[in-house]
Design goal:
- 73% of the residues lie in helices and 0% in strands.
- It is built from 8 helices and no strands.
- The longest helix is centred in the last third of the chain and has 30 residues.
- It has one domain.
- Helix 3 runs parallel beside helix 5, helix 3 packs antiparallel against helix 8 and helix 5 runs antiparallel to helix 8.
- The protein is an all-alpha fold.
């Protein structure tokens, strides 16, 4: 179990994912390239991936654990559409980094917040994460744009729901170790959020 905990934490901290685009920086121009880019984007963005994993860990012990991440998924799509419509959100990347830091701290401190507040946090963060995602498809035609948003939503939910299901599976046999897993994963998210926060403020 310790190896699993260390491995999961190392993955969260060291995923090779500073690139945010599966198409090498090119705007998707077909249904397939839009879909591939949408599926890849949440995995290739380390800050986005850390947030979704942390959200899954925080949602896992809740009765609505598989429903709550939908607040992030839906808001992310709205945020992307806001960007594409030319509606600006201030300090987008800073808010994204801050959201990763916040969820990491909740995991480290084992803080329990009610479902309504948690859903609100996920939704607000989703707006800014989605806004950042849309940068890679700005100027795309309708078909790749729709397929990108579909792929993005599917992958976001798959990561969050997968995290919830894995956590619940582990809780059946390794319940005593799960608080440590949460704290270690939270520490990784705090480190990632802090790095991106400093980078975006100073860079």
């Amino acid at each position: 179990m310790l190896r699993l905990v260390v491995g999961l934490t190392a993955f969260l901290v060291a995923a090779p994912a500073f690139a945010h685009h599966a198409m090498g920086g090119e705007t998707p121009n077909s249904l397939s390239t839009g879909l591939i880019s949408g599926l890849a984007h949440p995995v290739l963005g380390l800050d986005h991936l850390a947030f979704i994993l942390a959200a899954g860990l925080l949602a896992a012990p809740r009765g609505r654990g598989l429903v709550l991440p939908l607040a992030f998924v839906v808001a992310s799509a709205v945020g992307s559409l806001l960007h594409l419509a030319g509606i600006g959100l201030p300090a987008g990347e800073i808010v994204v980094a801050g959201s990763v830091l916040l969820l990491g701290m909740l995991l480290v401190l084992q803080s329990r917040i009610d479902d309504g507040l948690f859903a609100a946090i996920l939704a607000l963060a989703g707006l800014f994460h989605g806004y950042a995602f849309a940068e890679s498809i700005f100027g795309a035609e309708q078909t790749p744009l729709v397929s990108y948003l579909a792929g993005l939503a599917v992958m976001e939910y798959a990561i969050a729901a997968g995290t919830v299901l894995v956590w619940r599976f582990l809780s059946r046999q390794h319940a005593a170790q799960l608080p440590m897993l949460n704290r270690l994963a939270g520490a990784g998210a705090v480190a990632i959020g802090t790095f991106f926060l400093v980078f975006n403020i100073t860079g």
